[in-house]
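Standup notes, protein team

Yesterday: finished cleaning the Glycine max set.
Today: Leucine-rich repeat-containing N-terminal plant-type domain-containing protein structure.
Blockers: none.

Input for Leucine-rich repeat-containing N-terminal plant-type domain-containing protein:
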Amino acid sequence: MSRLSILILLLIVLSFSSALSELCNPRDKQVLLKIKKELGNPTTLSSWLPTTDCCNNWVGVSCDTVTQTYRVHNLDLSDLNLPKPYSIPFSIGNIPYLEFLSITGTPNIIGTIPPTITKLTKLRNLYIKYTNVSGQIPRFLSQIKTLEFLDLSYNKLSGNLPAWLPSLPNLVGISFDGNRISGAIPDSFGYFPKSFVMLSLSRNRLTGKIPATLAKLDVKFVYLSKNMLEGDASLLFGSEKHTRHMYLGNNSFAFDLGKLGLSKTLEGLDLSHNRLYGTLPKGLTSLKDLYYLDVSYNNLCGKIPRGGKLQEFDASTYAHNKCLCGSPLPSCKRF
């Protein structure tokens, strides 16, 4: 056998051996390459090559090595340098074992969320944020019963909050901050599953009062700042709840702050730029983990309770109220 024949045979063997050692499922690989093409072959995905293993060193791709199915289960399409505006590829729904999908930090992603995403029947975490995706939050997302966290923040979404969201049985949290969502918070939001810990709806155009049903919720993280909400938000509080963050600033809430029962686990509380009245609750002094507090720009009165961490915050925390006084503000003259 000639040297040339041996060399050719060796190359064939090496090529065959390489193909056998590839972990990536061929169907997943073809879908990923199609997604890359549908996004204009961005240089961010230059590692996605037909000749390489998608389970090894493809940016944003990871495969299931625990059960050794080696199916693609995580896909992170972040900060893509797209050459022009593109919609989310419809073929994204053809990765059947996907559990985590993130499309973030790419202003050139436009259009609406594709319905093919409902084919991802194992999807647990969906992040579409900091894009120019528009339209309403689609009802077909209610078909993905495996969803645990839904983050659609900082896009151009509009319409109302979907009343069907609490029907997702495994939902842990939602974040729709920084969109153009309008209307009232649905009554159904008081019936999220017990696993639910995060309600984040800041920087939208929400109006109306907090539904009475939300008094039933025991949510660790509540972010409703910078909307046009009004009325009594005291029902969100409770000494028996496990709230850690309560951010309600820049709304038109009006209630007696002094009558609040506060969660012992409270770490951050923003009630600034509202119409709150009464005194500061003495329960604030017993909050050992409180690191952020802002009650400025309200109608509060009376002496700031001494103790806990209340005197560690600067005067801006309490500024622009009706008649609050005491350290760190000037001393009280009448109280």
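Follow-up from PR in the comments: The radius of gyration is 26 Å.
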